[in-house]
Design goal:
The chain is mainly alpha-helical and 398 residues long. It is built from 15 helices and two strands. Helix 10 runs antiparallel to helix 12 (303-321).
């Protein structure tokens, strides 16, 4: 790699890592004040857990010598033989492996044991994430080899995390008082700060996935900004029309939905296509977050509505808007005369959803048998900050 590319990927790796503390603030502001530290801790501690898992075995399972298109071999265990450019690629991918399970934490906010979260995250980062990463990112993975494309993680990160969140929610059950009482975010300024950090870091997430300081990185950078902005507009307009009032949380959620939706196609689509993707994502993700009330599952912080639905929208629309003139690594989408590619993207979405839902639900049941999943009723009522961590997020008097 050139010195410029090395520098860009080092910076991009740091940007993607910075997204996880940003996610912690994004989620932390959305929970009630008695649970803010627990939410921050779930995200922050995931950095440590996944770093160890990825270093020792996760990286080799994702990018080691292919085994039947399903998983990598053990040739890079404990980073054996990984050096130079390979070490740089490893650490860049590590940051993706970190934020993916962290995304799940928002769905189980305010009721999951911290010990259960640690065990689930460890097992998920060891089993589920490396396998899906191999399918979608490794050259020999069955999805990639078949022709499916995922520029920066619509499939591998967002659909993967979103459907895992849904499985964990089903295993865990709803918060006490769900649908019976209003559970308002305690600090939307904190959420907006987290949104800004996520948006900033996402340029490393998407543009860094070009793996070079080149024109594809520039294209991914531009489409990322456009889609996020348009989706924020779309979400706010939709809720304004439906509820009569635009909200700060809607603007933040819409921006994140647009960032999610452009991720699979950031380096494969044009700026005008990014406008369409952002608009569709903002509107559909807004509609999707209400499904939890209709179907009765408690996705506390709308991980399913934003990340699963946004990932599906982006991955499927990549099959519509992809242009080989922008990036020769992708065929033309449906809008530009292609047809097979669209079909493959749809199949990939369904395959990842099916595998990850089943695997994640089974892991949740295993964790439940070992540690239990939920805190006690009195702990949930008191708040997880005091009951699990013996700390308070805010102390205004002695």
């Amino acid at each position: 790699m050139s010195e410029g590319t090395i520098a860009w990927l080092l910076v991009s790796s740091a940007l993607v890592l910075f997204m996880t503390p940003g996610l912690a603030l994004f989620y932390g502001g959305m929970v009630r004040s008695k649970n803010v530290l627990n939410m921050l801790m779930k995200n922050f501690f995931t950095i440590s857990i996944v770093t160890v898992v990825w270093t020792v075995i996760g990286y080799t399972l994702a990018f080691g010598t292919d085994f039947g298109g399903l998983i990598g071999g053990l040739d890079f265990v404990a980073l054996r033989g990984v050096e130079g450019d390979g070490l740089l690629f490893m650490v860049f991918q590590m940051m993706f492996a970190i934020i993916t399970p962290a995304l799940i934490s928002g769905a189980v906010a305010e009721r999951m044991k911290f010990s259960a979260w640690v065990l689930f995250t460890t097992l998920w980062a060891l089993i589920v994430y490396p396998m899906v990463a191999h399918w979608g990112f490794a050259a020999e993975g069955w999805l990639f080899a078949w022709g499916v494309r995922d520029f920066a993680g619509g499939l591998v990160v967002h659909i993967n995390a979103g459907i895992a969140a849904l499985a964990l929610v089903f295993a865990l059950g709803p918060r006490r008082g769900f649908r019976a009482e209003v559970m308002r975010p305690h600090s939307l300024p904190l959420t907006l700060l987290g949104t800004g950090i996520l948006w900033f870091g996402w340029f490393g997430f998407n543009a860094g996935s070009a793996l070079a300081a080149d024109g594809i990185a520039i294209s991914a950078f531009v489409t990322t900004q456009i889609a996020a902005s348009v989706a924020a507009l779309g979400w706010v307009v939709a809720e304004w029309m439906k509820n009569g009032k635009p909200t700060t949380l809607g603007a933040a959620s819409g921006a994140v939905a647009g960032l999610v939706a452009i991720t699979p196609g950031a380096g494969f689509v044009s700026p005008m296509s990014a406008i369409a993707i952002g608009a569709i994502a903002g509107f559909l993700c807004f509609l999707a977050v209400s499904l939890k009330f209709r179907f009765g599952y408690d996705d506390s912080l709308d991980v399913v509505g934003v990340h699963l639905v946004g990932g599906i929208v982006g991955s499927v629309l990549l099959g519509v808007f992809a242009e080989s003139r922008i990036n020769t690594a992708v065929p033309d989408g449906l809008l530009f005369g292609g047809s097979d590619f669209f079909f493959k993207q749809v199949v990939a979405v369904l395959a990842v959803m099916a595998f990850t839902f089943i695997a994640s639900y089974l892991l949740a049941r295993i964790v439940k048998a070992i540690t239990g999943l939920r805190v006690e009723e009195n702990q949930e009522t008191e708040g997880l900050d005091i009951s699990l961590h013996e700390e308070r997020g805010y102390v205004f008097s002695e």
